[in-house]
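From the methods appendix. Each design record in this collection lists the tokenized structure first, followed by the designed amino acid sequence. Records were kept in a plain field format so they could be parsed without special tools. The example shown here is representative of the layout used throughout.

RECORD:
FOLD TOKENS (299 positions):
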């Protein structure tokens, strides 16, 4: 934590020096606002109602589009991975549409929806949908068939296999797709707000640029970064909680539980009590003691 905080403070210090002394080399910092100017503008906007209105608009759009993408992406990805019929009917269409950038769908959104709001949500949905779909499809196909066979052997049906084996086993991959999809969704919702929005962080950032309010532009960029970091962290924390049954590495356990780490040392093996050992099984130590009893203990 200290290293991360130090890295951020170091980057801010470099930014302050370059902007304050108007350094113009291969990169030009003469027009950059300083950190103090940006922080002052940030504080001024936090006290106004327009900033919070833009924040609420962007969060509403990202929440609506991402929620739709998460539900439909997991459902369609699972269907394509499990059903040959769905793979034949839907798979080719998805692979044709998937390479199209979501921001390139702005003209399609204008034609499909009567208002800008629905179009921005649609673009956000399209941006997050395909990462979730692809991650779910690969995660489901990578599951070992032994688990499904075990459930079917015990009398489990198709839905039992889906809820007890497929979805729990694919959860780590699904949350990886959700994390990637959320980042892409933020990129596209900000771009859509800049193009056709009336409110939102992206819209306000572009308006600040058009009136040459560079501290306001950097306030918008900082807001976008903080929002993306906060939402990505929320998805990561939720994923860890949902998949808490998975084994964790020693480094992860030491970080989350604040346990001391023993680098390069292996934990001592736990020996079973003599009564718990399997009768007739030679563990190696018994044979060694018998040999020592035969030849005598070394002096």
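DESIGN:
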């Amino acid at each position: 934590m200290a290293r991360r905080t130090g890295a951020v403070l170091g980057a801010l210090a470099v930014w302050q020096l370059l902007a304050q002394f108007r350094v113009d080399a291969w990169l030009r910092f003469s027009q950059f606002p300083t950190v103090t100017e940006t922080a002052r503008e940030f504080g001024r906007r936090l006290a106004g109602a327009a900033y919070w209105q833009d924040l609420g608009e962007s969060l509403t759009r990202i929440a609506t589009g991402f929620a739709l993408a998460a539900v439909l992406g997991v459902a369609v990805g699972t269907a394509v991975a499990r059903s040959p019929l769905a793979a034949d009917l839907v798979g080719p269409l998805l692979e044709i549409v998937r390479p199209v950038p979501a921001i390139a769908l702005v003209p399609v959104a204008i034609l499909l929806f009567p208002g800008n709001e629905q179009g921005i949500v649609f673009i956000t949905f399209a941006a997050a949908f395909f990462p979730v779909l692809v991650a779910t499809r690969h995660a489901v196909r990578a599951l070992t068939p032994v688990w499904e066979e075990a459930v079917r052997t015990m009398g489990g049906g198709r839905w039992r296999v889906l809820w007890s084996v497929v979805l729990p086993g694919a959860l780590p991959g699904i949350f990886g797709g959700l994390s990637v999809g959320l980042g892409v969704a933020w990129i596209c919702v900000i771009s859509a707000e800049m193009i056709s929005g009336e409110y939102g962080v992206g819209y306000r950032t572009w308006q600040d640029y058009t009136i040459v309010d560079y501290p306001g532009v950097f306030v918008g960029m900082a807001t976008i970064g903080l929002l993306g970091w906060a939402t990505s962290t929320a998805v990561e924390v939720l994923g860890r909680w949902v998949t808490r049954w998975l084994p964790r590495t020693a480094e992860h356990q030491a970080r989350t539980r604040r346990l001391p780490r023993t680098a390069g040392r292996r934990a001592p093996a736990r020996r079973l009590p003599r009564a718990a050992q399997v009768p007739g099984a030679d563990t190696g130590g018994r044979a060694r003691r018998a040999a020592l009893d035969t030849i005598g203990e070394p002096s």
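APPENDIX NOTE: Confidence is low (pLDDT under 50) at residues 272-288.
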